[in-house]
Specification:
Elements lengths: L2 E6 L10 E4 L17 E2 L4 E13 L4 E7 L2 E9 L5 E11 L4 E7 L7 E12 L3 E12 L5 E2 L4 E3 L11 E2 L4 E13 L5 E7 L2 E9 L5 E12 L4 E7 L7 E11 L4 E6 L4 E2 L3 E4 L3 E2 L11 E2 L4 E13 L5 E7 L2 E8 L5 E11 L4 E7 L7 E4 L2 E6 L30
Parallel strand pairs: 10-12, 20-23
Antiparallel strand pairs: 1-9, 2-8, 3-8, 4-7, 4-9, 5-6, 5-8, 10-19, 11-18, 13-18, 14-17, 14-19, 15-16, 15-18, 20-31, 21-30, 22-29, 24-29, 25-28, 25-30, 25-31, 26-27, 26-29
Length: about 400
């Protein structure tokens, strides 16, 4: 069915001669030395394809980035030459079946001082319907007798205020197949992790007992969603003592070909700057307009750019935009010191060969900063082009005289 876009963003440099693993989806993953800590569990069968990698900085020897499936190399891999930067692509495909685990593997070459990958992306075409794979990573949390509300894209960013992390959906679907991977856990009592819908408990949850680690799934529950619903996740801790670190993932299944892309960071943007970022995963930011450009690799109708801005001390208006080939196609303006949710509900067609990214412009401000929550767009089947206006047929009377009303022509 319709292919969705997975975008994992990562900025820190990878050391020389190392093998590290990165979580797919829409996450901001850590670089993991252990593959299991970066694996994404699939419950929907389909095809992963069109590996896309952008290398931001690199002065190391030849390196590779490979899609891994169940601990082995898949068909998709890119070779990155000595000190090479820019875009690397592999149009190969990998079949995915239920219970497959996937990760991206980065193997760096020798020498040098930097190897920074600004994004890794794949397309996923489910065998049935259209599946958005939400995923987010959370650092170690140590709160006792707390319920917190991490996000479901990028940096999970645990908070007590749900609007700060919620993703606004502009089309309905079914949220299902929750998978939680617990990397470390020294909690002395059971934790509960699950879904939230419109600031209320969802139907997806798992219980993680004291000190337990590994994969926990809920494949029986589901949340039925409609347009304008908001989703995020929760963690409830009981008792006292210890920390827990986990990643959260779930599948949003739609029947109309729509899917969502979201990005999130846990730090604000200060004056007076213009920053560019990826449209998925971490909201890493750069002064360079090309660092986070991504070729979409499928035609789509893009709409509904939205975010909840929960902190804003900038003393002038800020523009947030979805750019295509360096041009703002969706955008909204956040007035000085104003917070809340903003949205541009317009739509437009994007070609498979177009470059896309986000832009946030705080250049008019002389003081302060602004913090967006998850920045989200919806995508769906490309709209059919408007039909060309019909050309009027020429009129010929072949010398006949037009009749008067009620008469005849001779």
């Amino acid at each position: 069915m319709a292919a969705t876009v997975l975008v994992t963003g990562h900025g820190p440099s990878v050391g020389a001669g190392l093998t590290r693993y990165v979580l797919p989806g829409l996450a901001n993953p850590a670089l993991e030395a252990t593959e299991a800590n970066a694996e994404l569990r699939w419950r929907s069968a389909g095809t992963l394809s069109d590996l896309f990698v952008r290398i931001r900085t690199n002065n190391r020897g030849p390196s590779t980035i490979t899609l891994r499936i169940n601990g082995g190399a898949g068909n998709q891999s890119v070779a990155i030459g000595d000190s090479a930067t820019g875009v690397f692509e592999d149009a190969d495909t990998d079949a995915i079946v239920a219970t497959d685990d996937t990760a991206y593997e980065i193997v760096t070459g020798a020498g040098g001082t930097a190897f920074s990958c600004s994004m890794i992306s794949s397309l996923f075409a489910a065998d049935t319907n259209t599946v958005t794979k939400f995923s987010a990573s959370e650092g170690a949390f140590a709160g006792d007798n707390f319920t917190i509300f991490p996000g479901v894209v990028g940096i999970a960013f645990a908070t007590l205020t749900e609007d700060e992390t919620s993703v606004l959906l502009n089309a309905g679907g079914t949220l299902e197949n929750l998978s939680v991977f617990v990397e470390s856990n020294s909690r002395t009592t059971t934790c509960t992790i699950g879904s939230r819908v419109n600031e209320a408990a969802g139907n997806l949850s798992v219980s993680v007992t004291s000190t337990a680690t590994g994969l926990f799934e809920d494949t029986s529950g589901s949340d039925t969603l409609v347009a304008d619903d908001r989703i995020n996740s929760f963690l409830t801790t009981l008792g006292s003592g210890g920390t827990i670190q986990w990643t959260w993932a779930a599948e949003l299944t739609s029947t109309d070909g729509t899917f969502h892309l979201g990005t999130r960071n846990d730090s604000g943007i200060a004056d007076p700057n213009i920053r560019f970022s990826s449209i998925g995963g971490i909201y890493n930011r750069s002064n360079s307009s090309t660092d986070f450009n991504m070729v979409l690799r499928r035609a789509a109708l893009v709409s509904n750019l939205t975010s909840f801005h929960f902190q804003n001390s900038l003393n002038a208006a800020t523009t947030v935009a979805f750019q295509v080939n360096d041009t703002d196609e969706l955008s909204y303006s956040v007035p000085a010191t104003t917070t809340g949710r903003f949205e541009d509900s317009a739509s437009f067609n994007v070609l498979a060969t177009d470059d896309v990214r986000h832009r946030i412009d705080a250049s008019a401000s002389s003081s302060g900063s602004i913090d967006p929550g998850p920045v989200v767009v919806m995508m769906g089947p490309a709209a059919a082009p408007e039909p060309a206006a019909a050309t009027p047929m020429p009129v010929h009377n072949f010398g006949l005289v037009a009749p008067a009303r009620g008469g005849r022509a001779y």
